[in-house]
Amino acid sequence: MNVKQLGWNEHFEQEFQAFQGKGYTVGRVALEHKRLYRVYTEQGELLAEVTGKLRHTATGREDFPAVGDWVVISPRVEEGKATIHAVLPRTSKFSRKVAGDTTDEQIVAANVDTVFLVNALNNDFNVRRIERYLVMAWESGANPVILLSKADLCDDPERFVREVEAVAVGVPIHVTSSLRDEGIESVAPYLQPGKTIALMGSSGVGKSSLINRIIGDDRMEVNAAREGDDRGRHTTTHRELILLDSGAAVIDTPGMRELQLWDADSGFSEAFDDIESLGASCRFSNCRHQKEPGCAIQEALATGELEQSRYDSYLKLQRELAHLARKEDKKLQSQEKEKWKKITQSVRNKPVKR
User: Fold this and answer.
1) Where along the chain is GTP bound (predicted)?
2) N or C, fewer C-beta in 10 Å, the chain?
């Protein structure tokens, strides 16, 4: 197994220089269990766990390995195991807030070049959900591509394409049908050697079926969507990095019933660039876009240039990010306090030289 085929490049080579000459090597996380990681290396697949030091110094979820991460390891090839000492700095990171009231980050995939946002052309199609995924995709650092799947269930795919084009300006959009094997060739240019693609979307949108068509083999289990509302059943239950014959890697992810935003200021601006640009052209710099004279956003709403539903979505996600920021600020203060508590304890426990 060649590391370049796994996505190794000059960025990671430079980051690894600090560890060279110490008996370490590198691997890429393919599968994450509770406290164990399946890691691809030049010595083959190894089952790895993090060191006690890494676990002790970690202040949050982002300090631990995630699927797609490059990690510094001490391999024990004869045992089929390894120890993870560090996670190399990521080039991209697709994150969401964990479900529920807890303010914690969940890293869905790391070091991704292109993220396929898969949406089915059935009764579960939702433009507002696509906007939400686009915010997180732009924030991740990867390039978003929208795949409108299950075209065999739709009489007029072009109508949906036009809807998506209105909220995803400049983002490539491809229509596919795994059942008819249509549009699969449109994703081939993204599957270049050394590149990593991640598939994101709700349950039942056809991610597993699409991967099977890309691979050319029914490797991934497939379930039908529920009758009546076309909502999906979970087929993929874990995140996994899969190597393709083309030399690319694909990260399959479980369907997300909810996608709560996480630290997405720049991604938000990118996804709603049309509204942000309008806001910048208002007569007053402190315009609240309500009843102020010369408000470009209110004018665009009145003329139909900007749809009310898109602006409502913009405001909703903006409020969600502001609420998350307030909660995250309190959590960061708590983490900083905990970090210094650990440092103080380690200093006190250090034996005194006599």
Assistant:
1) 149-152, 201-209
2) C
Query: At the fourth CATH level, which superfamily is domain 93-252?
Result: P-loop containing nucleotide triphosphate hydrolases (3.40.50.300)
- DSSP letters for 274-317: HHHHHHHTSSSTT--SSS-TT-HHHHHHHHTSS-HHHHHHHHHH
User: Regarding beta strands 196-200 and 114-120, do their DSSP bridges make them parallel or antiparallel, or are they unpaired?
Assistant: parallel
Quote the pLDDT of residue 226. Answer: 45
What pLDDT is stored for residue 137 in this prediction? 87
Strands 44-50 and 37-41: antiparallel
Residue 100 assigned to a binding site: no
Instruction: Check residue 61 and give its pLDDT.
Output: 82
**Was 151 annotated as part of a binding site?**
yes
Ordered by start, the domain boundaries in the chain are 10-87, 93-252, 265-336
44 is in an annotated binding site: no
287 is an annotated ligand-binding site residue: yes
Residue 206 labeled ligand binder: yes
Which of 12, 68, 11, 15 is closest to 37 using CA atoms?
68
Q: Is 304 among the annotated ligand-binding positions?
A: no
294 is in an annotated binding site: no
pLDDT value, residue 5: 87
Q: What topology is assigned to 10-87 in CATH?
A: OB fold (Dihydrolipoamide Acetyltransferase, E2P) (2.40.50)
Which residues, at least 6 apart from 51, have a Cβ–Cβ distance to it below 8 Å?
83, 84, 85
* Both structure tokens of 255: 């369907």
Q: Which residues of 170-205 are buried (b: 16+ CB within 10 A; e: fewer)?
A: ebbbbbbbbeeeebbeebeebbeebbbbbbbbbbbb
Question: Tokens representing 53?
Answer: 């030091």
Is 266 one of the annotated binding-site residues?
no
Q: Does 23 count as an annotated binding residue? A: no
> Each residue of 249-297: pLDDT tens digit?
999 887 555 555 555 566 677 778 888 889 998 999 889 888 889 999 9
Which residues of the chain, if any, have pLDDT below 50? 225-226, 229-234, 236
Distance of CA 119 to the CA centre of its chain: 15
